[in-house]
Structures are given as C-alpha cells and as structure tokens.
Predict the structure.
Amino acid sequence: MNVNVREASLTRRSVLAAAGLISGSMLIPDTLYASDAPLPSASNNSRRLAVVKGHANLARSELEAVIFEQAKKEGDKLIQSLNEGIGNSKAARGRPYYENVYGPVTYANSGYQFVGGQPANGYSFSNGGSIYVELTGGPSVGVSFSFPLSFGGAVGVSMSFARAVSSPGIIVNIPAGGRKKVKANIEYASTPYTTYYIDAYGNRSVYAHLHSYPEVTGRDFKVVNA
C-alpha cells in the first residue's frame, strides 16, 4: 500500500525515562527537554532522520555525534554527583574517583505497530484524507538494545510510541476506499557507557552499566486495512 507522507512542524514530547542496569536495580536518567523544529521531507515508507533536540536534516554521522554528546552530558552529571560524594577530588593524590567509558551509538526498532489514538475501526475517507502523527506521547512499546557485552549487553526499555494528534505533526495521507489504520516503525538510538570506580590505590571496578536516554532517529509509516 503506497502512502504519501509529507512533513509539518513537530513538537517533541519527552519519552518515558529509559532504564540502565545498576547492580540488578534500575536507574532512571534525567528527562530530556522537548524542542520545536521542522522535520526533513520524506517519501512513502522512507527511513529518514527525525528531530533530535531541535537538529534536523543531519547526516547519520552528525546525528550520532549529537546523541553521543547527550550521553556525555548525562554521564558527566552522574560523575559530578558521585565525585562530590567523595570530595570531587580526582586531582588529589590518593583519593578515589569515578569515570565513564563510552561505547558506540546503538540502534533499535519498535517494529510496525498501530499508532495510538486512532479510532478502533480506523479511518474512512470517500475521496482520501490525512491524519497527523506525532512520534512520541502515545502508548508504551518495548525496545531492546543489544549493546556490546563490555557495556552490559542487551537491555530492554519501555518507550513512548507514536500517536495520532490533531496538529502539528507528520502528515500521513489515507487513500480512499474502505477503512484504514496507520502503523509506524520507530527507530531509536542510545549510547552505552560504563561507570567505573577507581579506589585510592588505582584499582578499577564497575560501578554501573548504563545507557543514554534513547532518541527517536527514524520512522516508517504504512497504511493497512482496519
């Protein structure tokens, strides 16, 4: 089924906080800030980059640099808090401290799922029509990131999914004929990192395996019979 997708301005909503494993318990990273920005143009079922904190039309390498820097900000905030608890004295000889080691940006997909907020029996337009879709703010979906084992291995997180809204959002055209519903496949990206504790003698141990707050980085749409 061909779907004509064009873009409108999208207000990003914060997705559910992603969880990193810490000694068998869960750490909830800080919530990211929402931002307003136009999305790049897209054709039907195209895997195109979405907005990451107001950055549009980025090449994949540029996008990964933005995501990596966000992970560094999150990690630095954690390190600052931990080091303050021991005097924040990495420079002082003989004092313990914490530091982070970062892995590569890693991607995961939700798989095609129905966009939230649609009528139970779908849409019907005698001459075709359109709906707006927002990439976040809908029902939660499970996404599994497979990080390198040195960064904790696979971890499953609960993420906010796409939903139908009045406006603004991504415009998905619904063809005429029968009742239709919209499915979306959302791509997310996250950066794994390991926080190490270094004692006063220089011995290193793992304090936590974490990952950055996942970002929406791509999306596909398709229209199916309701």
